[in-house]
Structures are given as structure tokens and as C-alpha cells.
Design brief:
The complex is a heterodimer of chains A (154) and B (153). Chain A is mostly helical and 154 residues long. Chain A has six helices and no strands. Chain A has one domain. Chain B has 153 residues and is α/β, with parallel strands linked by helices. The chains are: A mainly alpha (154), B alpha/beta (153).
Chain lengths: 154, 153
Amino acid sequence: MTRISFPSALITALRMMLGAFFIMSGYEKLLDLKFFGLIIAEYQILPSFLIPAIALFFTLCELLCGIMLLIDLFSRFSSSVMLCMMVVFIGAMINNVMRGLDHDCGCIKFLSQWYGLKEEIGIVPIARDILFFILLLPIALLGSNRIPWVKDQK
Amino acid sequence: MSLNIMSGKPLRRKLFAAVIILLSGISPSLSQLHAAASVALAKEESGELDLFATKALFDSHSACFVDARSEYVYYKSHIKGAISLSDSRFDEQFPDFSQKKAIETLIVVYCTESSCGMARHVAKKLMKNGYRNVRVFSGGIIEWAHAGFPIEG
């Protein structure tokens, strides 16, 4: 069986790009956690008492994984966490689209502010999260799982 | 002479009405007026309020304003003093609302604009739950904000 070789420079580029992206996305959510919580409530999947904790959890996960990806600290682990989160987001959006609910996805506000990308749940944010999933896969499968300031012992 | 005038009055009125109907059919501006009057009449009959009637209620502090849009939209901006009771999460929010507001309270429900149906849905749900004095401000927050009336959020 042939192993797919992936240039390490490409992994690094993906890691840096996604890391910066998740940091920005997590940071803007952290600035207004209540707003993010209200959007999660609109999905009508979780009980109300869990929503503030889940909003904080998702935000911190995004922020910390973003930092870890950027500095290459346990990149495989952090990208795997983000992969799981993407699966949750995609599943939640598909669930809401099928139920005919119409609201903001609560994904990445700065993208809609800067580039006018749609934030309402639908095909665009679902496709965007699928793209993130695809971009995270090489890091999760082939990235390093090391601590950058500890030198490898050979 | 006076007898002639008296007998001529109903005829004159009929003629006048016929001219108005004719004109409203012909002139586009008059037909628009006619349409606007019909819409206003329909709104009044269905219990919907226009901008100025809503503002009068707002100034008199005699009504409770209810925002039927999603809670996260309400959080960003709403009519000053309004309470969130969203169409999408009505069942979760209503118990809290019913504890705060008595059943006799005059309630004005609004959403984004006249084409959004959320305010009417919430008004129906409120009436189903026993609230009798429920009115809809059909212009919504867009008309309110456009008029420069108070908003917070």
C-alpha cells in the first residue's frame, strides 16, 4: 500500500492558516459570549440550562485549538478536536435546515462583515465547514504531535 | 326654491360619490390613496396598529412591547423597553413572560417589518394563552427606526 506523501510545508501552511482563523473566530465569540449563546439556543437542540456552558466550551476550544495549531503544539490532537467540532456544527446545521429553521449559524462573524458572506444557516455555511473539515484532515493524519520547545531525542 | 335644493341633495351626493369612484379608478394617485385607505382599514379591523398609534401607546406607557424576532436579533437592537418573546422559542420564553405580565396587559407585538409573520404568530399564541389585549404593530422595527423613534440594544 502506498502512503500518500504530503509536503510538510503544506501542512505547516494549513496549520498556520487554520490556526489564525480559529483564533479570530474564537476571540470574536469570546467578546460577546451571550450573543453566541443566544444563537446556540436558536438551534433548539440543547436544553436552555446547558447553553451558556456549551457556548463557553465551544469558544475556548476554538481559541485554544487555534493557538495550539499556530504554535504547533499537539497539532494532531488539536486538529482532531476541531474535526469533531466541525462534525457537530455540520450536523446541527443540517438538522436545522431539515426542520425548516432559519437563523444565523453563529459561525464566523468577521467573514460576513469583511466579505459579506452569508451567516444564515444553509448550504453556504455547511459547505464552508465541510471545506474546513477537508483542510483539517491532513493535519490530523500527518501533522506532528510534539511540543515545539522540546527537542526530539534520536 | 328651497324644496328644489332639498330634493336635489341626495342626487348631488350620489353624483359626487360616482365621480370619486370614477376618479379613483382612473387616476393612479387616487387609486393609491384608495389602496392605502383599504390597507389601513384592514389593519384596523384586524387589530394592527400603524406607526403613530404605536408611538402614542409607547409615549403613554400604557402598553407592553413584545419583540417577536429571534432572541439574538432582539439582543442587538429592539424598541426601547421591549421584552423578547420570540416566535421560534415561544414555549421556552412564555412561562417567564406570563409571570411578569398580567393577562389584562395591553400588548403590542412587532417583528422586523410588515412582511414578516412572526408578530402575528406570537399575537395568536398570546391570545391562545389568554391574553386578550394584543395588538400587532405591523410596520415593525424597520419603520420604527426609520422614524427615529427610541431603540436600545
